Amino acid sequence: MNTGAFKLTIHMVSSLDGFIAKTDNSISWFETVDYYEQGITLTEQDTAAFLKSIDCYVMGYRTYEHALKLSESYGWVYGDVPVIVITHRNLPVNPQNVEFYSGDLNTLVDERLKSNYKNVWMAGGATLAKELILLKLADDIRLSIMPIILGEGKLFFDQIGQEQALHLKNVTAYKNGIVDLHYEIKHSKTDLIH
Of 10, 8, 9, 7, whose CA–CA distance to 126 is shortest? Predict the structure, then answer.
């Protein structure tokens, strides 16, 4: 049972021009040979400690299908951390720690996630990210910008339909040219009374 402060973070990897997937859904563009001399190096220990802080992942069905396909070559990247896939589809359950959810997102966050987890990461799905922002359920956005312009594909923010104020909490540039932006989503006081 969660006894600390709850946080739901939207995490997305994007090209500089805002695309999160090519039209063919390939991710070869995630590999970068760029080198930024002033950037920091992320060690395996840093990555392991960070991943250990995540209690639960939430994702859309396309991200789940993609993760399953990648697991054939790289293994299941989410380890034994619980994964909740938002879908109405009948999908294969491969790892034991995966469950499917097709109900109301407010109910999921307020009744399931907040009572059981402290640090939840939405690991993919532009549509899901948009819904979480519109429903004011997300607290942070972490955007990893790859050093590439794709020119076309699936946009991270496509017709979100509302203005949303953000507060920049941190910027980190890495040796491999990736820049991480960490934003807090600013909610008005009346939004927090829901």
Answer: 10
Residue 186 per-residue DSSP state? P
Calpha distance 132→162 (Å, rounded): 13
Q: How do residues 26-50 score in pLDDT, each as one tens digit? A: 778 888 899 999 999 988 888 888 8
**CB count, 10 Å around CB of 36?**
15
Find, among 4, 1, 6, the residue nearest to 58 by Cα: 6
- CA separation for the pair 1, 113 (Å, rounded): 10
DSSP state of 75: -
Check if the beta carbon of residue 63 is closer than 8 Å to that of residue 123.
yes
SS3 for 130?
Answer: helix
Average pLDDT of every residue of the chain? 90
Instruction: Tell the residue number behind the tokens 């899901």, with chain if given.
Output: 128
Task: Parse the chain into domains and list their residue ranges.
Answer: 7-22+43-193
Question: Which alpha helices (DSSP H) does 53-108 contain, by range?
Answer: 61-74, 105-107
Rg (CA), the chain: 17
pLDDT digits (tens, 9 = 90+) for 119-148: 999 998 899 999 999 999 999 999 999 999
- pTM for the model: 0.89
What is the rounded average pLDDT of the residues 62-86? 90
Task: Look at the domain 7-22+43-193 and name its fold.
Answer: Dihydrofolate Reductase, subunit A (3.40.430)
